[in-house]
Amino acid sequence: MASLATSAAATADPRARFVSGPLGPHVLEMILTGWASMLAVFAVEFLSLFYLGTLKDEAVLGAVGFGSMTQFTITSVCIGVTVGGAALVSRALGSGDARRARTLAGASLILMAGSAVAAGAVFLAAIGPFTAAIGLAQDVRGHLLSYVLITTPFAVVMGIGMMLSNLLRAAGRGRQSMWVLLAGTATVAVLDPIVIFVLDGGMAGIAWAGGVGRLATVALGAWLVFRTHRLVAWPALRALRADLAAIGKIALPAALTTLATPAAVIFTVSTYASFGPSVIAGATVVDRVLQLAYSLFFVLPGAIGPILGQNLGSGQWDRVKQTVRLTSRWALFYGFAAATVLAVLAPWVPDVFQVTGPGRDLIIFFCRYGSFAWAVNSLFFVSIAVFNNLGYAAYSTVIGWLRATLGTLPFVWLGAHYGGPEGVMLGQTLGFALFSVIAMVVCLRVLREPPAALKGRPAA
Description:
The protein is built from 18 helices and no strands. By secondary structure, it is mainly alpha-helical.
C-alpha cells in the first residue's frame, strides 16, 4: 500500500497537492480560507440585520429571518450539487486525470444552473400557501412575500457562484476560492449602509444589495475558473449524460441530507411563530448569531472534502483517516471556545438588535446554554464530509433525516409544551447534539477499513 501511495502521489496532477506533505497545514489552510469567506458572508448578513434593527420594526426582522431560513431549501440543493461536483473533480485530479476533471467541472456547472432554477421555482410556488397554512402574522407575511420575490431569482446566480468557488477549492486553490466569496460579501458590505441610511431603501434595498453581491461573486469566480486556470471543459452530449449521472449519485443524497436541516429549522420556526412576532424576531437574531459564531462548522464538508477526495483517489487511506482526526479535534475545541464567548456576551446581544420581551429572553437563553449543545454539531459536519467523499452518501441522507425528524420533532414539541420558546430552543439543540454524536460513531466505523475498490488495487 505504501508503494502504491507513493506511485500515485508521484504521477498525480500537480494541482493534486493534498496527496503529499504534512496534512496539518493542508487542513488548516482549507478550513481557514473557507472559514474566512463564510465568516464574511455571515458577518454581512449579521450587519444587514443590525441595519434593519434600526428601523425598530420586529415584523421586518421576523420576515427577513423567516425568508432567509426557508430559502435555505434552495441553498441546500445548491450545496448538494457542489458536493457532488467537487468530490468527483478532486478524485479525478488525485488520480492524475486532468482532462476528466475539466469535463466534470463543466457538467457540474450545467447541473447547478438547472437545479437552482427548479428549486427557486418550487420555493416561490410554495412559500405563500405555506405561510398562510401555519398562520404567520399578516404583517410579517406581507413583508416576507415582498422580500422573497426579490431574492429568490438570484438563486441561480448564488448557485453558480458556489460551484465556481468549490471548483477552485477542489483544485487546491483555497485562497482564490475565498476571494471569490469575499468579492460578493465586500460588495454587500458597502451597499447595505448606503441603501439603508442614504437611500432609505429599507428591506427591499437590503434584498437588492444582496443580489448585486451575488453577481460580483460570479464575475470574479468565472474569471478565475475560465480565464486564469481553465478548469472547465464542456462535455459532449453523450458524455454529459454520463457525467450528470455520476455527479448525481453524490449530489442527490448530499442535497437530501442538506435539505434535512432547513426542514427541521422550518418546523422549529413555525413553532416559534405561535408565540408571536417578538419570539420570531428573537429566533431570527439567534439564527444570525449562530451562523456567525459557528460559521467554521458549515465550511468543514467543503474544506476537507478535496483533501479526502484527492487522497482517496491516490490510494492513501492513512492520510484520509488522519485528516478526519485532525479536523474533529480542532472543530470541537473551536466550538466550545465560541460557546464560552457567547455565554459571556449574552446580556448585550439582544440590545444590539433592539429586541425586547420574550424575544430577548430567547436570545439570552441560546447564548448561555444552547450554544454549548451546538458546539457538538461539529461532529455532524465532519461525518457528512466523510460519507459524501468516501462513497457512503446514503449514510448522510439517512442520518441527516433522522436528525431532522426523530432528533427534532419530538424534542421541539415537548419543549414547546413544557418550556415555551426556551423549551423549543433547548429541544432543538439537544436533539441535534445527540444525532451529531451518532453520526460520528458511524463515521468511525466507516474509517476502520478502506473501501473495497481501494483494497482491490494491485500493488505498484
